[in-house]
Amino acid sequence: MSSLRGGIDLHTHSTASDGTDTPGALIAKAASLGLSTIALTDHDTISGVSEADAAAKEHSIELIPGVELSIEDGDIRRFHLLSYFFDVNNPALTSTLEGVRRWRSDRNALMLERAQAEGIDLTFEEVLDEAGEGATVIGRPHFAAALVKKGLASSINDAFDKYLKTDRPLHVAKPSLTLKAAAELLHAAGGITILAHPGLIRWAQPAELAVYIKDLKNAGLLDGIECYYFRYDDAQTEFFLGLAHENSLLVSGGSDYHGGNKPDVPLGSVHHGSSLSPSILDPLREASRLLR
Ligand code: AMP
Ligand code: ZN
Ligand code: FE
Ligand code: FE
Are residues 58 and 83 in contact, defined by beta-carbon separation less than 8 angstroms? Predict the structure, then answer.
């Protein structure tokens, strides 16, 4: 029996942002793997949720609406925030996400200007081509794919190293929401706030990060942390489970599946190659219910 069967994955991306499966294809794949529940957590957009929801009904699996927002808390503290169970029709939420999309489109224009200045002949159409139909959030991974196609980089990773990461020629800082703004917005829409992959955070040592997370919880801004994650080793999972327990934070987990844009990360593979037990959802659901 598959270690995925009956399980859940709470962190996935579709073509609505920088994944390569359409929302419908993602759900069909989840169903074929025997997963029971998927959360769609595209970057800065919920535009894939309705297609995913229709596919989930067709395949008799559960779709949880989600999103992954980029947050800045001061100059240094940048991280991703996941949210689940919000009302997808909440006007403040949809209009804020629309605003984030406008920031991104201004940034993309600046990145193209940078490319021109570097003597790289890159058009927005070429970048869009890499995002595919239905993409509402265009970002650096699409620029990376276009640069690879032009033969200017050997892989997505190489394109980031050469051109796109901080301090590289095409890099333009992305305006982000503050945690306070994001948490207020999400909570008002019935969404819980979960710190995404804290084990990938490099701007704080684990001990500092633990204090920071505790402060966020005490301030009412953070409800939980992603304790299970494809790229974690056992020590990281244990560390974040301990932190969640000590601070009464919710426990979440997911693969961060991106299809062909992260080819080593399989759908549903959250912890030791397995998906998570559906029982992990009960406290998350209850916390969201209490927000309404
Ligand atoms: P953006 O939101 O446009 O700044 O793009 C950020 C996304 O790029 C992240 O969510 C990652 O999925 C991806 N990314 C960042 N660094 C790398 C890298 N070195 N190699 C591949 N993908 C990356
Ligand atoms: Zn991504
Ligand atoms: Fe992330
Ligand atoms: Fe992600």
Answer: no
Rounded alpha-carbon distances, angstroms, from residue 164 to 37, 141, 157, 212, 258? 34, 9, 9, 28, 19
Which superfamily does CATH assign the domain made up of 8-97+175-291 to?
A: Metal-dependent hydrolases (3.20.20.140)
pLDDT in tens, 237-250: 999 999 999 999 99
256 CA: nearest ligand 1 atom: 12
Closest atom of ligand 1 to 141 CA is 8
Distance 140 CA to ligand 1 centre (A): 6
Report the run of H or E that residue 182 belongs to, with start and end.
helix 179-188
pTM for the predicted model, two decimal places: 0.93
pLDDT in tens, 255-276: 999 999 899 999 999 999 999 9
Any ligand 1 atom below 6 A from CB of 281:
no
From residue 240, alpha-carbon distances to 15, 128, 244, 291 in Å are 30, 37, 6, 24
The CA distances from residue 278 to 1, 4, 52, 228, 252, in Å, are 17, 11, 19, 13, 11
For residue 157, the ligand 1 atom closest to its alpha carbon is 20
Whether 2 has a pLDDT exceeding 60, the answer reads: no
Q: Whose CA is nearest to atom 6 of ligand 1?
A: 140
- pLDDT (mean) for 5-24: 96
Place of tokens 């494809």: 230
> Is 54 buried (19+), middle (13-18) or exposed (0-12) by CB count in 10 A?
middle
Distance 46 CA to ligand 4 centre (A): 13
What pLDDT digit, counting tens, does each position of 216-234 carry? 999 999 999 999 999 999 9
Q: Map out the domains of the chain as residue ranges.
A: 8-97+175-291, 101-164
Q: Which fold has domain 101-164?
A: DNA polymerase; domain 1 (1.10.150)
Residue 105 reports pLDDT greater than 60? yes
